[in-house]
Amino acid sequence: DQQVKQNSPSLSVQEGRISILNCDYTNSMFDYFLWYKKYPAEGPTFLISISSIKDKNEDGRFTVFLNKSAKHLSLHIVPSQPGDSAVYFCAASGNFGNEKLTFGTGTRLTIIP
Amino acid sequence: DAGITQSPRHKVTETGTPVTLRCHQTENHRYMYWYRQDPGHGLRLIHYSYGVKDTDKGEVSDGYSVSRSKTEDFLLTLESATSSQTSVYFCATATGGTQYFGPGTRLLVL
Q1: Three-state secondary-structure class, residue B83
Q2: Which residues contact A53 (CB under 8 A, 6 or more apart)?
Q3: Could you give the 3-state DSSP secondary structure of residue A40?
Q4: Do A100 and B101 touch (CB under 8 A)?
Q5: DSSP code at position B79
Q6: A20, B85, B94, B99: which has the highest count of C-beta atoms within 10 A?
Q7: Tens place of pLDDT per residue across chain A (113 aa)
Q8: A45 lies within 8 A of chain B by CB
Q9: Of A44, A46, A99, which has the smallest distance from its Cβ to B31's Cβ?
């Protein structure tokens, strides 16, 4: 039972354009959402997060949008740069007292120069 | 980034042998986790710890055990390695709702 879903395994975007990565979740108890970025042969690194009390959070070129009614979140990268080429994981957690995260299966983003 | 190291970084072993992977953190974080990453599955939780000697199972715990005798160390043991346990293993710690990951251990079971 995949509680966090990333339905696009891969995405290619031209350098300078907007990259939009999507994530859906099914568990209504999730109240905190994160995006991680992973380069080959490295561990995932935290990118940006959003609490369920917000619908948008911005950090430089990265913006995360949360639509609670649709149980959907998206990560926007503007403008896209070659160094953004990586696998992006969406993750979610709830107030369960153990800080556990449930991860999606990832989307491989390729920025075309 | 939290100071998280994993050892070994690469290991090749044979089916049926025991294997122990080590995770060491310098951040004094209470929570620690072991994940495996496989194509098409993303990151799946094996076991986690919420304090010294306090551990619990994740979604793919069969064939794995863990121990945490000190805050800074979290060990993952494959009791009798199988080819299905060939994977990349990541350790993580958590604080403030965010997890921080180590560099990973690539394990090949022949």
Answers
A1: helix
A2: none
A3: coil
A4: no
A5: S
A6: B99
A7: 789 999 999 999 999 999 999 999 999 999 999 999 999 999 999 999 999 999 999 999 999 999 999 999 999 999 999 999 999 999 999 876 668 899 999 999 999 99
A8: yes
A9: A99
